[in-house]
Amino acid sequence: MGANINIFYALYCISSRRQQGGKIMAFITKSKKQTEKLALMALLTAIVAVLAYFGGFIKIGGLASISLTLIPVVIGAALCGPFAGAWLGGVAGVIFFTTADAIFWFGLSIPGTVITVMIKGILSGFCAGLVYKLLEKLNRYLAVVVSAVVCPVVNTGIFLLGSLIFFIDTVSAGATTEGLSVGGYLIVFFVGLNFVFELLVNIILSPAILRILNIGKKK
User: Fold this and answer.
1) Cβ-based neighbour number of residue 215 at 10 Å
2) Cβ-based burial of 214 (10 A; exposed 0-12, middle 13-18, buried ≥19)
3) What string of pLDDT tens digits covers the 219 residues of the chain?
4) Measured between alpha carbons, how far is 35 from 10 in angstroms, rounded to an integer?
5) In the list 2, 6, 84, 156, which could disulfide-bond 80, CB 3.0-4.6 Å?
6) What is the domain partition of the chain in residue ranges?
7) For residue 59, which phi and psi values (nearest 5 degrees)?
8) Which parts of the chain fold into alpha helices (H)?
9) How far is CA 88 from CA 6, 77, 214, in A?
10) DSSP state letter for 59
């Protein structure tokens, strides 16, 4: 009888140790993934900061400023989730305030500029991540393309809305001078080719973004 009790006790100890070992391995794996996620976010944050700062100085025939900032925002939003996308979009907004382009907007309205830039950056990243998360199970390529489109659309849409709320006097005066409607003036002079460029670049680079995501998901 005593021998049987010892055997059962030994089996219990082995089972308990295996469970503890499994919990430890799960904790280590979770910690490793969190560390990799933090490292990825640090890298993407640095890339967004650089692109946001120098992008405003790259011009296309004097008509538009090249901005590749939304690409790492989409990548981060897809790999790390909507809140990561919001963070990266917010970083892009903060860096914009240090550029020469910000001076013009600050001259129109400092509070309006800060509110518009931060909200459009944060929401564009968040929405890109949310859309990717919703569509990923259906088709990853579709999820990438749609999130890559949603990001600049939300970004530009909120910018236009902010312009109507905070810069309406400047917009109305400019529209009257140019003989355009308020909407037409916003599209021609405030948005210009920037939106078209950002949208096309995001769509064209979608396959490359998908490859990056595949590598990230495998890790």
Assistant:
1) 10
2) exposed
3) 555 555 555 545 555 555 555 556 555 656 767 788 888 899 999 999 998 888 755 665 555 566 788 889 999 999 899 999 999 999 999 999 998 889 989 999 999 999 999 999 999 999 999 999 999 989 988 999 999 999 999 999 999 999 999 999 988 998 898 888 888 888 887 777 778 887 888 888 877 877 877 776 665
4) 37
5) 84
6) 36-218
7) -110, 155
8) 2-55, 70-80, 82-96, 101-108, 110-135, 140-166, 168-178, 182-185, 194-204, 206-218
9) 59, 8, 20
10) E
Residue with tokens 């469970």: 19
Residue 192, C-beta contacts closer than 8 angstroms, at least 6 positions apart: 63, 64
- Write the burial class of residue 107 (CB in 10 Å: 0-12 exposed, 13-18 middle, 19+ buried): exposed
Alpha carbon 185 to its chain's center:
28
Task: Indicate the length of the chain as a whole number.
Answer: 219
Q: How far apart are CA 215 and CA 219, in angstroms?
A: 6
Please give the CATH number for the structural domain made up of 36-218. 1.10.1760.20
